[in-house]
Amino acid sequence: MAQNSTEQKFTFLFTWFDRTGDGYLTRDDFQQIGEVFAAVAPDESNKSALREAFMLWWDVLGEAGAPDAQGRIGRRQFITAMRSHIAADAKTVERLVTPIIDALMRALDTDKSGMLTADEYVRMYEALGIDPATSSAAFQRLDRNGSGTITHDEFRTAIEEFYLSTDTEAPGNWLLGSPLPRS
């Protein structure tokens, strides 16, 4: 079950990152997903941080030997690299996603409260192409203490769960706006 859960998460992520829809990830796909995220940031420093974070991700996949001779990564290679070089090490997850978390929190926290409201969270996902009904439901699960906001720690925990947890019921499985399919 844990293997299946991890495969489902990374397949979902692969599909989301495959901006061209050609069944491969390339440096261009990572540049494009960086631009999608940068578009939600109100200032250039956050835009730049998000772009750089996604390019770092591409570099780590390269270090894992995932790209083929044409500079493409197929779904199976992506899942293998994610398991062996990213999700296998909490420090690598932290190195890759902490810049994304920090930049997103700064970009989305429009009222500068240090937390994300439901409106701020749903607006982010809408900008990323996720249906507001789905992201509203996700917000409820990620707001672990029921305060009506998602703190930096709650956001970070959700991201860590998505990449590291094999618990299919973990709230972090809702991170990208929809639950993992149940097997």
TrEMBL record:
Keyword annotations from UniProtKB, A to Z: Calcium, Repeat
Species whose genome carries this gene: Streptomyces atriruber
The protein's name in its UniProt record: EF-hand domain-containing protein
Bilayer-spanning residue ranges: none
Domain EF-hand: 5-40, 130-165
Protein origin, superkingdom: Bacteria
SUPFAM superfamilies: EF-hand
PANTHER family: CALCIUM BINDING PROTEIN
Pfam families, per database record: EF-hand_1, EF-hand_5, EF-hand_8
Gene3D superfamilies on file: EF-hand
